[in-house]
C-alpha cells in the first residue's frame, strides 16, 4: 500500500517535471541566430560619451564604432551604454558588434532635422516612401554588415519622432522621414531586450537582409503618430520576430518587398518569416502582409497574436501595378478585442511611386490559411476584395469565431469580391465564395 502510494507520487512528480520541461522548451527564434556574448567590451564613456541628456554624443558614437571596426578583435566587441541619456545624431553600426544598452540607458536622437543626412532611395522603392528623391538616413543605420546585435537590459532607443510627425502633418517634409533602426544588405542580426520609443517613421526595418531575429522588444509610439510601423521585414529572408509588445500608430508587423515597377525589377522577395507571441494595439493592422509586395512574399507563419483596440486584426494588402506573388501565408491562434475589421484581404490598397507603374502588373494572392481566430467587439469580421483580372484563390479559413457588433452603418459580416477558397467552423457564417 505505502509502496504503491510512493510509486504513484513518484510518477506524478515525474509527469509534472516533464510538463515543466516541455513548457520550458517553448519554440523560439534562437536557432536562427544564436545569441553570443562578446568578451571585449568598450564603453561609450571611454570615448567621451556623457549621458546628461544635453551633450551631443555623435563623435563618441562614431569614434567608438570606428574603433570596433578597426581593432577587429576576435569575437567582436561590445559597446556598452551605461545608464543615462545619450543624445546623438544618427550613426552607423559595424560588423561583429553588440550595442548593449544597460538598464536605464537611453540613446536619444537629436531634433536637428535641418542637418539630418540623406541617403539614396532603396532600389526596390525607386524613391523615398513618402517623398520623391532620397530619404533621411535612419537614426541607427547599417549597410552590408554581419553579426550585429542590439540588446541589453531593456534600455531605450528614443527617436524623438514628434518633430517629424509634425512636419508630416504640416506637409513641410522635403524627404522621407528616418526609420529608427534600418539594416540593409546585412545578415546574422539580433535585436532583443530593447525599448523602441517614438520613431520618426517605421521602427525596425531590415531590408535585403537574411537571418534576422527580433525578440523581447517593446515598441511604443502614440496611436496617432503617422506611419510608425513596428517591425517591417522587407525583401528579407529568415526573419523571426517573437515575444514583443508593440503599440504604435501603424501596422505592428508588416512584411514587405518593394514598390511597383521598382520592386518588380529589383525582384527581391521576402520569405520564411516567422512572427509569434506578439501583443499590441494600433489603429491599423496587427499582422500585415504588404502593401508593398512587388518582389513577392512567401512562407509566412504568424501565430499566437493578441490584439486590443485594433483597426484590422490581419491584413493582406496589395494593389494593381504591384505585381508580385503573395503565397503560403498562415496565420493562427489570434485573439482580437475591439477592431473595425477582423480579417481583411485587399487588392486596392496603397499608393503608387509615380505614373510609370504598369497597370497590367497584377499581383497574385494564393494559399492563405487563417485559422483559430477568436475576437470580440468586431465591427466587420471579414472584408475580402480581390482583383477582377487576378482573383485571389486558395483562401482557407478554419475555426474562426468573431463576435460581430455592427456599428452605426452596419455592413454584412463578410463581404467577398473576386476571391475563392474554403472554410470550416466559421462564425458568423462566411460569404458563399468561401463555402465550396
Ligand atoms: C578582421 O579579422 C578577420 C580575421 O580575424 C579577417 O578575416 C578580416 O579581414 C578582418 N577585417 C578587417 C576589416 O580588417
Ligand atoms: C553611414 O553610412 C551611409 C551609407 O550607408 C553613409 O552615406 C554615411 O556617410 C555614413 N555616415 C557616417 C557618419 O559615417
Ligand atoms: C525644405 O526645403 C525648403 C525649401 O528649400 C527649406 O526652406 C526648408 O528649410 C527645408 N526643410 C528642411 C527640414 O530641410
Ligand atoms: C526585458 O523585457 C523582457 C520582455 O520584453 C523581459 O522578458 C526581460 O526579463 C526584461 N529584462 C530585464 C533585464 O529587465
Ligand atoms: C509554406 O511555408 C512554411 C513555413 O515557412 C514552410 O514550412 C512550407 O514548406 C511552405 N510550403 C510550401 C509548399 O512551400
Ligand atoms: C500558442 O499558444 C498555445 C496555447 O494557446 C500553446 O499551446 C502553443 O504552444 C503556443 N505556440 C507558440 C508557438 O507559442
From TrEMBL:
<keyword id="KW-0378">Hydrolase</keyword>
<protein>
    <submittedName>
        <fullName>Probable polygalacturonase</fullName>
    </submittedName>
</protein>
<dbReference type="Pfam" id="PF00295">
    <property type="entry name" value="Glyco_hydro_28"/>
</dbReference>
<dbReference type="Pfam" id="PF12708">
    <property type="entry name" value="Pect-lyase_RHGA_epim"/>
</dbReference>
<dbReference type="GO" id="GO:0004650">
    <property type="term" value="F:polygalacturonase activity"/>
</dbReference>
<dbReference type="InterPro" id="IPR000743">
    <property type="entry name" value="Glyco_hydro_28"/>
</dbReference>
<keyword id="KW-0732">Signal</keyword>
<feature type="signal peptide">
    <location>
        <begin position="1"/>
        <end position="24"/>
    </location>
</feature>
<comment type="similarity">
    <text>Belongs to the glycosyl hydrolase 28 family.</text>
</comment>
<dbReference type="InterPro" id="IPR012334">
    <property type="entry name" value="Pectin_lyas_fold"/>
</dbReference>
<dbReference type="InterPro" id="IPR011050">
    <property type="entry name" value="Pectin_lyase_fold/virulence"/>
</dbReference>
<feature type="domain" description="Rhamnogalacturonase A/B/Epimerase-like pectate lyase">
    <location>
        <begin position="42"/>
        <end position="121"/>
    </location>
</feature>
<dbReference type="InterPro" id="IPR051801">
    <property type="entry name" value="GH28_Enzymes"/>
</dbReference>
<keyword id="KW-0326">Glycosidase</keyword>
<dbReference type="InterPro" id="IPR024535">
    <property type="entry name" value="RHGA/B-epi-like_pectate_lyase"/>
</dbReference>
<dbReference type="InterPro" id="IPR006626">
    <property type="entry name" value="PbH1"/>
</dbReference>
<dbReference type="GO" id="GO:0005975">
    <property type="term" value="P:carbohydrate metabolic process"/>
</dbReference>
Amino acid at each position: 500500500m505505502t509502496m504503491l502510494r510512493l510509486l504513484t507520487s513518484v510518477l506524478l512528480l515525474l509527469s509534472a517535471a516533464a510538463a515543466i520541461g516541455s513548457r520550458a522548451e517553448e519554440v523560439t527564434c534562437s536557432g536562427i541566430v544564436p545569441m553570443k556574448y562578446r568578451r571585449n567590451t568598450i564603453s561609450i564613456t571611454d570615448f567621451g560619451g556623457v549621458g546628461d541628456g544635453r551633450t551631443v554624443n555623435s563623435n563618441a558614437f562614431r569614434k567608438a564604432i570606428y574603433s570596433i571596426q578597426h581593432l577587429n578583435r576576435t569575437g567582436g566587441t561590445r559597446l556598452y551604454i551605461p545608464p543615462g541619456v545619450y543624445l546623438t545624431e544618427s550613426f552607423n553600426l559595424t560588423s561583429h558588434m553588440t550595442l548593449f544598452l544597460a538598464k536605464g540607458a537611453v540613446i536619444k536622437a537629436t531634433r536637428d532635422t535641418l542637418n539630418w543626412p540623406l541617403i539614396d532611395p532603396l532600389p526596390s522603392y525607386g524613391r523615398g516612401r513618402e517623398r520623391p528623391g532620397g530619404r533621411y538616413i535612419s537614426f541607427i543605420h547599417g549597410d552590408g554588415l554581419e553579426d550585429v546585435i542590439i540588446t541589453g537590459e531593456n534600455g531605450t532607443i528614443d527617436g524623438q519622432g514628434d518633430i517629424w510627425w509634425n512636419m508630416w502633418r504640416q506637409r513641410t517634409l522635403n524627404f522621407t522621414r528616418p526609420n529608427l533602426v534600418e539594416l540593409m544588405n546585412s545578415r546574422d542580426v539580433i535585436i532583443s531586450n530593447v525599448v523602441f520609443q517614438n520613431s520618426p517613421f517605421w521602427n525596425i526595418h531590415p531590408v535585403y537582409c537574411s537571418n534576422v531575429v527580433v525578440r523581447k522588444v517593446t515598441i511604443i509610439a502614440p496611436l496617432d503618430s503617422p506611419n510608425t510601423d513596428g517591425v517591417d521585414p522587407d525583401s528579407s529572408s529568415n526573419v523571426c520576430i517573437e515575444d514583443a509588445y508593440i503599440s504604435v500608430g501603424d501596422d505592428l508587423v508588416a512584411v514587405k518587398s518593394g514598390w511597383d515597377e521598382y520592386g518588380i525589377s529589383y525582384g527581391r522577395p521576402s520569405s520564411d518569416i516567422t512572427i509569434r507571441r506578439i501583443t499590441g494595439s494600433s489603429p491599423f493592422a496587427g499582422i500585415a502582409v504588404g502593401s508593398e509586395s512587388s518582389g513577392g512574399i512567401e512562407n509566412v507563419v504568424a501565430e499566437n497574436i493578441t490584439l486590443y483596440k485594433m483597426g484590422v486584426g490581419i491584413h493582406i494588402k496589395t494593389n494593381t501595378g504591384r505585381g508580385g506573388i503573395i503565397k503560403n501565408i498562415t496565420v493562427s491562434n489570434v485573439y482580437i478585442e475591439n477592431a473595425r475589421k477582423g480579417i481583411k484581404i485587399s487588392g486596392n490598397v496603397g499608393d503608387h511611386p509615380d505614373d510609370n507603374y504598369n497597370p497590367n502588373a497584377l499581383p497574385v494572392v494564393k494559399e492563405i490559411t487563417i485559422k483559430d481566430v477568436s475576437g470580440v467587439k468586431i465591427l466587420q469580421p471579414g472584408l475580402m476584395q480581390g482583383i477582377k483580372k487576378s482573383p485571389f484563390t486558395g483562401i482557407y479559413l478554419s475555426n474562426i469565431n468573431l463576435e460581430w457588433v455592427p456599428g452605426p452603418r452596419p455592413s454584412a459580416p463578410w463581404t467577398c469580391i473576386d476571391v475563392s477558397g474554403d472554410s470550416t467552423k466559421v462564425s458568423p457564417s462566411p460569404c458563399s465564395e468561401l463555402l465550396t
